[in-house]
Design a protein that fits this description.
By secondary structure, the chain is an alpha+beta fold. The chain is built from 5 helices and 9 strands. The chain folds into 3 domains: 61 residues, 2,3-Dihydroxybiphenyl 1,2-Dioxygenase, domain 1; 75 residues, Roll (2,3-Dihydroxybiphenyl 1,2-Dioxygenase, domain 1); 36 residues, no CATH class. The strands form 2 sheets. It has a 5-stranded mixed beta sheet. Strands 1-4-3-2 form a 4-stranded mixed beta sheet, covered by helices on one side. β2 and β3 form a beta hairpin.
Length: 185
């Protein structure tokens, strides 16, 4: 018997301290109410159009412990690129992949995908992610959007290559190829 592979992720669930407060937060970023279970302390919100995907919010009650979880929402590249300014104008701090305050998305080179992160009111890490329609560059690692968009030679400088190391490497290539016509190198 072969178990069929999943075709996608339909839902994710987060624990929250205050259901009404968290529900308002997620409505504020564009999710719509799908269903509420007041007696169970739960609310379900549609991600995208109704029936596409869902986020469940569950109150933790009086438990003294909390979990910090992560959810990534797929979106368009235009939305990811605009998200830092939009989040900041809503009083939410946009974050890089590394958790530092950011003015632009991070790019995960092996995928490749652009992403911006932020924390919800309960400390969960939320991500807006857009897959990029270009070849993966795993050797690039995880870099800011502006570094990803740089020409390849400029990216080497951004990652720490010094001008002298680049010139030396260039000179070795020219020497190996027998110089350039008209050049005594």
């Amino acid at each position: 018997m072969t178990i069929p592979p999943p075709a996608g992720l339909f839902e994710a669930h987060l624990t929250v301290d205050d259901l009404a407060r968290s529900f308002a937060f997620y409505q504020g970023i564009g999710l719509e109410l799908a269903h509420e279970e007041s007696e169970r302390g739960a609310a379900f919100l549609w991600i995208g159009a109704p029936g596409e995907a869902m986020l469940g919010l569950w109150t933790t009650g009086s438990a003294p412990i909390a979990l910090s979880l992560h959810v990534a929402f797929g979106t368009s590249l235009d939305h990811v690129l605009a998200a830092a300014d939009e989040l900041r104008s809503a009083g939410i701090t946009p974050l890089s992949f590394f958790g530092t305050e950011a003015d632009e998305p991070s790019v995960i080179g092996w995928m490749p995908a652009a992403a911006i992160y932020f924390r919800d009111l309960d400390g969960h890490l939320i991500e807006y992610l857009a897959m990029l329609d270009e070849p993966a560059r795993p050797d690039t690692g995880i870099v800011p959007w502006s570094t990803w968009r740089m020409p390849r030679s400029t990216r080497a400088f951004a990652r720490g290559a010094t001008p002298s190391s680049r010139v030396s490497a260039h000179a070795r290539v020219i020497e190996r190829l027998g110089g350039i016509d008209g050049d005594d190198t």
